[in-house]
Amino acid sequence: MGNDSIEYFNRYTGKVETEEIYGERFLRWTYGNPIGKLSLEGVVKRSVFSNWYGRRMNAPASRGKVLPFISNYRLQTEHFAEAPETYKSFNEFFYRRLKPGARPIAAEKDVAVFPADARHLGFQNIHEAEGIFVKGAKFDLLRLCGGDEQLAERYGKGAIVLSRLCPVDYHRFHFPVSGTPGKPQLINGALYSVNPVALKRNINYLTENKRYYTLIQSAEFGPVLMFEVGATCVGSVEFTFSPNVPVRKGDEKGYFKFGGSETILLFEPNRIRLDDDLLAQSKKGRELYAWIGDRMGTMAAR
Question: Most buried of 79, 142, 164, 219 (most Cβ within 10 A)?
Answer without folding.
Answer: 164
